[in-house]
Amino acid sequence: MMAASAPAVPEREALAWAHSARFLTTASRLDQLPVTDLPEIAFVGRSNAGKSTAINTLAQQRRLAFASKTPGRTQHINLFAVGPKDAPDTLFADLPGYGYAAVERAAKLRWQQVMADYLEVRRSLSGVVLLVDARLGLTDLDQRLLAFIAPRVGTGEVKLLVLLTKADKLSRKDAEAALRSAGEALGALATEHADIGVTLFSALKKTGVGDVAVTLRQWVRPLARADVTVDAGPGA
Ligand SMILES: Nc1nc2c(ncn2[C@@H]2O[C@H](COP(=O)(O)OP(=O)(O)OP(=O)(O)O)[C@@H](O)[C@H]2O)c(=O)[nH]1
Ligand SMILES: [Mg+2]
């Protein structure tokens, strides 16, 4: 399902790029996000799926994004700048998870709206990494998120990579079954322009880390320009 494109970036280069990730800013509302031309890659998924851990693992840093056993740990949109120190070429966005039962209903609805708005209006959004616990597979909430971004994925404007996380907790056979069923579910989103991938991932065993870094680097490389800037001003 991956669109054929430019020659692959070497894994070592992609990992060095991901390693450059550093904290940029945090926002609890969309209008607090910096206006930027930098392509943004959002890490989304259910609470506890492993979003923050995946960012740390890709960046090969222990405490860049806050990961925790307690679901609902990430409560803001946290942005990380990636690329050369003086000329970042990409932003990673760590988003709060959805589906955490203990969150008060009003707060849950509010957050769902913020995320829906983010996915809909964030102009610089170039890619979505959807993290799914490999043991649970794509849940209803994940399907709703996919339906929500399907129009922008279908045109190729937004790329999509699904990580089946915590793959270390599955046997090889169950991991392959999880990969197959996620692939089938994602088939419904495929169009001639859609760039959709699905892969097993483990922060513990480092499964998929190099491949994911390469994929993300490929996503933004064609867009990478030296002249883009990050303003501190308000607005999405
Ligand atoms: N075994 C294993 N555990 C993992 C893996 N990735 C994450 N975890 C654990 O899963 C828990 C949740 O990880 P987080 O990265 O905080 O999850 P999150 O998706 O950011 O959660 P929220 O911020 O609440 O939305 C932590 O206890 C992690 O250590 C993995 O690949 N393997
Ligand atoms: Mg988190």
Give the overall shape. Answer: globular
Number of structurally distinct domains? 1
Instruction: State the secondary-structure class.
Output: alpha/beta
Cross-sheet strand order for the largest sheet: 1-3-4-2-5-6-7
Short synopsis of the structure:
The protein is an alpha/beta fold. 33% of the residues lie in helices and 19% in strands. It has helices at 11-19, 51-59, 105-121, 140-154, 172-187, 209-220; strands at residues 22-27, 40-45, 77-82, 90-94, 125-133, 159-165, 196-200.
Describe this structure in words.
With about 240 residues, the chain is of the alpha/beta class. A 7-stranded mixed β-sheet has the order 1-3-4-2-5-6-7, sandwiched between helices. The chain is built from 6 helices and 7 strands. The protein has a single domain, classed as Rossmann fold, CATH 3.40.50.300. The protein binds guanosine-5'-triphosphate and magnesium ion.
Which features does this protein show?
236 residues, Rossmann fold, seven-stranded mixed sheet, binds guanosine-5'-triphosphate
Question: Helices, strands, pairings?
Answer:
Blueprint: H1 11-19, E1 22-27, E2 40-45, H2 51-59, E3 77-82, E4 90-94, H3 105-121, E5 125-133, H4 140-154, E6 159-165, H5 172-187, E7 196-200, H6 209-220
Parallel strand pairs: 2-4, 2-5, 5-6, 6-7
Antiparallel strand pairs: 1-3, 3-4
